[in-house]
Amino acid sequence: MLRITFGLGVAEAFLIIVSSTPVSAESPSALLPDEYLPELRTLLTQAVNQSPPTLRASLEVARARAQELVDSSAMWPTLSADIRWAAVESSIAGTSTQKNRNAGLFYTLSLYQPVFHWGALKAQSDIGKIETDIAEKRFEDTYRTLALTIRSQYLDLIQRKKGWNYSKFTLQQTEARFQALQQRRDAGAISAAELNEPRLKLAEARIAADRMEESFVQGCRTLAALCGVQTISADQVPDEFPKPEITEEQLQALYRLADSFDPGRTPQGAIYEMTMKQNRLSYRIARSRTLPKVGLSASASQQNSTTAFGGGITQSDVTQQMVGVAANWTIFDGFAARGQKLALLQQRRQLNNTISEYDRAQREKIDALRKQIGFAVRSLEISETRLNISNNSVAVVAAEVKSGHSSPDGLETVQSTARTTELTTLTYRTDFFAKVAEYLSTLGVDPALSAFEQRK
């Protein structure tokens, strides 16, 4: 049994519903549809690893991790080998007696280790790591928006199923009335012509029921494809949507979350901050373009040499080993370094503007959503009251019909009104839950993201 208490505050109205199931008054997440619909929670969890959007995002993360190896490779030593068998003959112009002939196995092994590049190599490695983190955040943002879409479509499925059930009920009533009219016609009470309009209404009721069924089935197919599951059956969609349990404490706790909003806690805000770090690292790399760079090198080589002169022949096997310090200095690069630094500084300014604009837009959106939640609560209050009145009217008229003080047609009228009111109330409930979900998602504290964190 539910006890409903209504209260109107200065800024907004709130609806308090107390049930036998205790709900934490300080838990804003209890205002999400996930808390009422376990099937929805299951779909949200499955979508992390099975949904097409998240699968594409996970592939992008894998690509970024592979690129991270490339970006870090310059810090490691490089080893190369050149091995070949060849025959080379050379002579000196103007002489006919001295010739050199090299034939046999030739090889060269070279090893190089960068030592000092002014931090450019470490910066490039860090850029690759940050790019992987950015891909992870994009994955998270993809799932964040996906969770909102899944919630919205699932709640819409409940409404479609409710509409389908109502259309089937209406069809049954229409069929019953038509059969009663047929019996009256068979008894000669009415003419056959009087069945024409009821027959058309029956056909329309069948079309309406078929249309609602197809709408529900299509909605199940669409949501299944979005979640990456094979099918979603009618049993996985509840017939009823429970009344949301809303307390003033929950609403106030929900609103207070905005006071500690940090753009960097959202996936997109974190991406902007990491992109700024990449910019600073790229600037360090550009600044080192015209500075000398030092490394260690070592090599070993072998070649065979045969020299013919004055009727004599000399054969030798030449082996060389070399260890040294190598320095490379690009003294002038045609102002390429200068241009790159200027471009990075401009990008930094753009990023600062983008971050400021993102912060402003998100705070405005959060403020607007807070107001929309208040409006949704007030609208839901009115709709729930109207639904209670309609249900009470149905009970009263049903009792009157049973006692013979009212006609069945009057009962059908109030029942039809009650069904329409219930569908409207479902719409308001859906609107409330959608606003709360978007609000928490915008703040970056959507509980659904815990499923994303658990996948790591």
Helix content: 55-70%
Compute the number of strand runs: 6
Major beta sheet, strand line-up: 3-4-5-6
Shape: elongated
Order of helices and strands: EEHHEEHHHHEEHHH
How far is the first residue's CA from the last residue's CA? 43 Å
Largest sheet: 4 strands, antiparallel
Unreliable parts: 1-23
Proportion of beta-strand residues: 15-25%
Structural class: alpha+beta
Mean of the pLDDT scores?
87
| Number of distinct helices | 9
Radius of gyration: 38 Å
Describe this structure in words.
Helices cover 60% and strands 17% of the residues. Helix 1 runs parallel beside helix 2 and helix 3 (120-186) packs antiparallel against helix 6 (267-287). Mean pLDDT is 87; it is low at 1-23. It is of the alpha+beta class. It is elongated, with a radius of gyration of 38 Å. It is built from nine helices and six strands, in the order E-E-H-H-E-E-H-H-H-H-E-E-H-H-H. Strands 3-4-5-6 form a four-stranded antiparallel beta sheet, with no helix packed on it. Strands 1-2 form a two-stranded antiparallel ribbon.
Q: How is the topology of this model organized?
A:
Elements: E1 3-8, E2 13-18, H1 38-50, H2 52-72, E3 78-91, E4 99-116, H3 120-186, H4 196-227, H5 248-256, H6 267-287, E5 293-309, E6 312-328, H7 336-403, H8 408-443, H9 449-454
Antiparallel strand pairs: 1-2, 3-4, 4-5, 5-6
